[in-house]
Amino acid sequence: MGGTLRPEVVEPLLRGSLGRPYVWREQCPSTQELARPLGHGGVAACEEQTAGRGRTGQAWHSPPGLDVLCSVLLRPRTPAGRLPAFSLVAAEAVCEATLPDAVVHWPNDVMAGGRKLAGVLCELREGALVVGIGLNVNSGPGDLPPNARVEPTSMAVETGRKWCRAQVLATLLERLEARFDDFERNGFPGLARDGLRGHRVVLADGTEGAYGGVDEQGRLLLDGRPLHSAEAIGVSAC
After folding, report:
1. Residue 131 burial (C-beta neighbours within 10 Å; 0-12, 13-18, 19+)
2. 7-186 — its CATH code?
3. Strands across the sheet with 225-227, in order?
């Protein structure tokens, strides 16, 4: 169980247009950069990243051969001003493809059991939206970084069993494609799996307030005031 993300294993499992082409490397600095030359729907994946990163440039660490590290290149018709909300859409796709209790922690984390299961990084450049996903699949307790800003978990830790990573990736791409197509047709649908619902939130600067969900642009509402992700670094529930 666990297996590889080599093309000959992943490609027969694909059920939509994402992953065509599918580029795989044993090791690369970042799948974000590996995906940039691809056409719409292209996917880059690897077994190990040497310079993986998350939002605000934070490093993303993952042991080789245990998790799903991939980036998807999309060319949306949606105007650039409405695209920031897509990180939430992509995060909900990750939830749907993984665990029943997975939720989105604004703006780009996927949580399970109160711990971080995955992160989503969306980067827009010259009309191309690169959606990077780091998903902890088969990492065990000793594989997860001990000093992470948010305590990590994995699908294996939460369920007590190993997962076929190729199947997890194929399911993830299927859900992401369905979510993207709906976003292109209908815009941001709101956040169904909202892990902050019912909480007060604290920002990194100590500002605290009532969480009011997200607006139509995907901005966090704090005491009714909309905040972009750059304004609300380090959101935690209290």
Report:
1. buried
2. 3.30.930.10
3. 225-227, 220-222, 208-214, 200-202, 236-237
Q: Is the pLDDT of residue 60 over 80?
A: no
**Three-class SS string for 168-232?**
HHHHHHHHHHHHHHHHHHHCCCCCCCECCCCCEEECCCCCEEEEEEECCCCCEEECCEEECHHHC
Q: Are the C-beta atoms of residues 104 and 91 closer than 8 Å to each other?
A: yes
Contact 142, 111 (CB under 8 A): no
Locate the domains of the chain by residue range.
7-186, 200-237
pLDDT at 61 over 90: no
pTM over cut 0.85: yes
Sign of the Cα torsion 60, 120, 151, 170 reads negative
Q: Say how many Å lie between the first and final Cα of the chain, rounded.
A: 38
Residue recorded with tokens 């605290």: 208
Cβ-based neighbour number of residue 209 at 10 Å = 16
Residue 119: helix, strand or coil by DSSP?
Answer: strand
| Cα 77 to the center of its chain, rounded Å | 21
pLDDT tens for 195-229 read 999 889 888 788 889 999 999 999 999 999 998 87
Averaged pLDDT for residues 83-105:
97
pLDDT for the residue numbered 237: 75
